């Protein structure tokens, strides 16, 4: 395992959980207890939501049969490292809301907040998460029986972090926490200024 301080150091005083959370690819083939998994969904429950619509939906695969179903639409490059992941979650949002009279313009924004809460609670519980965009979205909707008025945003691997050496060689060099841009690189005062 890595010493996070080798790769990440906050420039301002924040809770260490934000530094602790990163996206490894090596996971132990170890079941996540149901009560632990429920805490990550409980955290997502409390994410902010426009008009309290709460458009997020999670499709969970924590049995071998369900994980195989997910593998059918995850691209091979991701299946190569996530075959042993004990839990896969499809992050989905409902794109409309009766309360709003049609389209919910903040469905993706709110669902992103819920995923963030989930990821931080997972880290607090000693779990690793890795969100993937590398999957066939149309096939995911078909295989998971997701209605037309829902959008699939990501597939998230959840489990206990494994060792870098357990990965295929092609992934080992990338298996380290990444740094982030400094705050000044993405903050504009008064009017927008592209800095990156």
UniProtKB/TrEMBL annotation:
Keyword field: Oxidoreductase
Record Gene3D superfamilies: NADH Oxidase
Nitroreductase domain sequence ranges: 20-75, 77-160
SUPFAM superfamilies, sorted: FMN-dependent nitroreductase-like
Transmembrane segments: none
Domain of life: Bacteria
InterPro entries per record: Nitroreductase, Nitroreductase-like
UniProt keyword annotation of Oxidoreductase present: yes
Any matching Pfam family: Nitroreductase
Family (UniProt): Belongs to the nitroreductase family.
Name this protein carries in UniProt: Nitroreductase
Organism: Virgibacillus litoralis
